[in-house]
Structures are given as C-alpha cells and as structure tokens.
Amino acid sequence: EGPESFPPLRNEAAVRVLQGRMKGIQGHCNSCYMDAALFSLFSCTSVLDSMLFMPFPLCDRNVQGILRDEIVNPLRRTGFVRASSVMHLREQLTDKGQCSSFTNAEKDPEEFLNLIMQQILGIEPLLKLQSGGQKEQECYCYQIFMDQQEDLVVPDVQQLVERSFLSSDLKLVEIPSCFIIQMPRFGKEYKMFSKIIPSLELDITDLLLDSPRECCLCGDVATLECS
Description:
Blueprint: H1 11-18, E1 24-25, H2 32-42, H3 50-53, H4 61-78, E2 80-81, H5 83-96, H6 109-120, E3 127-131, E4 137-139, E5 142-143, H7 157-167, E6 170-172, E7 181-182
Parallel strand pairs: 1-2, 5-7
Antiparallel strand pairs: 3-4, 3-6
Helix pairs in contact: 4-5
C-alpha cells in the first residue's frame, strides 16, 4: 500500500478548511520563510505533488516522508500544521545541507527551495531564463528585483513580474511547468510595498523568448519588439 495522499484544497473547501484562528502553518523560531513557501507550494495546488511521491534518483525518502505526512497532508486535511512538524523538517535539512542554521535563523526562501529540490530530492530545475542573448540559466524559482517604483503603490503580481523581467532584460526560454515567484516583501528591515495583490492568472506571453505576438499597431504578427 502506497503513502496516503490528500488532494489540494479548492474553492469552498479551501475557505472552510483554511479560514480562521489556528489555521495554516504555525510559526516558531524564524520559520516564516519556510512556512510561507510550503503553504504556497502545497495548500491549494498539486503542481509540485511529484515532490511528495516520486522516487527521484537522489531522493531522500525520509525528508520526503516528513514533508508529505507531517506537513502537506495535515495542512490539506485539517488546515493546520504544528511548529514541531516544521522543526522536524528543519532538523533534517540541517543534517543534509551544508548549513547549520536552518533550525534557528531566518533564511532566504530560495536557499530553502534549492536545498530541498536540488540536493535532497534531485528535481530538475523548473525555470529556464535568458538575459540579453546570454547563455541559458536554470533555476527553481524567480526572485523579483526592481528599483523603487513611484507609480506603483499597491501593485499586482503581473505588474511586478513584467517590470522585473524588463529591467533585467530577461525572457523565459520555454513555458515553465511551475513558475515560483518570490515577492519583494521579505526581511525584517524593509518592505518595498505595503501590500501586493495576487494575480489569479499570469499572462507570460510577453515574457517568452521568440514567441509569436501581435503588432500593437496593425494586429499582424509582430516582427520587432520594443521594450
């Protein structure tokens, strides 16, 4: 018999199970970077469920089991995960990684994702990016970098991704199976935006390399691109 699985929460079920006090992933000892990442990756989407079940070549089955049975399944079943379960995962990551501070320090979510996806589960990179005609680079998530934008007070994710790609002269080489985006709203000291509105759908048409697009003047297939 295989491991138990619970589907991600959708629509009314998501509201019923996840809304209210003592819901979500309990924070403890600077775990917010991991709590937020795990909640985003698994609570309401199945796009990364292969992380929970696939026997990847380098896969550490112990870490995979903790992730599935102590964090994702309880979150989807009851809407709540104890801090002790996340600490169990953090202890395992500390053992497996080259970093001793996963159990007590605040980390960059990208560091956590790279460790668990690449070193512990052995998953292929999710994104292929190209900057200004340079060599392709592969990664697991995209962190939004941008200068202060005076005209954006409460931006949505679509605006932030487009402006960030434009300022870095970046393009997606292909449509990603999963597009994990880190918002510019982390860390204790400085928040660029007080709020960011989630875009429920992301239009990546203009972010794709060599993708046919229509001319904004005549409506035919465009032959030139102006930033």
